[in-house]
């Protein structure tokens, strides 16, 4: 099955402003985020990509714009299922203010029980994101083969929830995972299990190019496996 590269959008005006953006329109990359996006094509230059999928939100589309310009042949798709969590009444509010709400403790310590007022639950967010990944895995494999690599540009909570699923972690542990703006997280999916290849990587990415001893090419019975990360 394919390798998925998850890119968190570059730093946004909401990140620097300490605001929970959610689906609030008009949230763009700030100057640093624009520079991070401009560097992404160079970081991925040695990685063949079969396709790119983006959240419909502006900050993700802006993050992928330099990559799309550098690779005009790259198919680019939009999927709402990897859009940010619907934070409902919390959207657009200061994180410092929200920290005083009793619900924030639930979000941080027992997220599987958290549902945002006027929005969605964290469980529902994870379910739609994982469904999207699984469906795209199948599509990419059918169209480009099992060794294909494809990219999704999404949001921190989405990426964390997908990683938790790949690692077999209960959703209540997903807050232990971290992904910086414009960082790369890579998951190699196989018939029996996923392998986490990178988490929140902000450096070079040449090692993500397909190779013969990729994890999942053969499963070791015990001992970690020579080909496993």
SSE order and pairing:
Elements (H helix, E strand, L loop, with lengths): L2 E6 L4 H5 L13 H13 L8 E3 L3 H13 L5 E3 L16 H4 L3 H8 L12 H23 L4 E6 L1 H12 L16 E6 L4 E8 L28
Parallel strand pairs: 1-4, 2-3, 2-4
Antiparallel strand pairs: 1-5, 5-6
Helix pairs in contact: 2-3, 6-7
Report on the structure:
The protein is an alpha/beta fold and about 230 residues long. It has seven helices and six strands. The chain has helices spanning about 15, 30-45, 60-70, 95-100, 100-110, 120-145, 155-165; strands spanning about 5-10, 50-55, 75-80, 150-155, 185-190, 195-200. The chain has a six-stranded mixed beta sheet, with helices on both faces. Helix 2 packs parallel to helix 3 and helix 6 (about 120-145) packs across helix 7 (about 155-165). The longest helix is centred in the middle third of the chain and has 23 residues, at about 120-145. The two termini are about 15 Å apart. About 40% of the residues are buried. Residues about 215-229 have low confidence and may be disordered.
Contiguous helical run count: 7
Question: End-to-end span in angstroms?
Answer: 17 Å
Low-confidence stretches: 217-229
Order of helices and strands: EHHEHEHHHEHEE
Radius of gyration: 17 Å
Share in β-strands: 5-15%
Helical percentage: 25-40%
Keywords, separated by commas or semicolons:
single chain; 229 residues; alpha/beta; 6 strands; globular; disordered C terminus
Concise overview:
Helix content is 34%, strand content 14%.
């Amino acid at each position: 099955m394919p390798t998925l590269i998850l890119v968190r959008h570059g730093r946004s005006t909401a990140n620097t402003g300490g605001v929970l953006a959610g689906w609030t329109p008009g949230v763009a990359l700030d100057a640093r985020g624009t520079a991070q996006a401009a560097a992404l094509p160079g970081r991925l230059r040695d990685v063949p990509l079969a396709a790119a999928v983006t959240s419909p939100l502006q900050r993700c589309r802006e993050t992928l714009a330099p990559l799309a310009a550098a690779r005009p042949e790259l198919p680019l798709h939009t999927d709402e299922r990897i859009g940010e969590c619907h934070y409902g009444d919390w959207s657009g509010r200061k994180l410092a203010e929200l920290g005083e709400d009793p619900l924030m403790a639930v979000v941080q310590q027992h997220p599987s029980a958290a549902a945002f007022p006027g929005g969605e639950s964290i469980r529902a967010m994870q379910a739609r994101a994982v469904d999207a990944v699984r469906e795209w895995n199948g599509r990419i494999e059918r169209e480009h083969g099992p060794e294909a690599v494809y990219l999704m540009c999404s949001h921190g909570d989405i990426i964390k929830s997908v990683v938790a699923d790949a690692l077999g972690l209960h959703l209540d542990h997903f807050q232990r995972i971290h992904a910086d703006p414009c960082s790369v997280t890579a998951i190699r999916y196989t018939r029996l299990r996923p392998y986490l290849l990178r988490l929140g990587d902000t450096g070079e990415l040449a090692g993500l190019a397909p190779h013969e001893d990729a994890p999942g090419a053969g499963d070791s019975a015990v001992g970690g496996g020579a080909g496993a990360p």
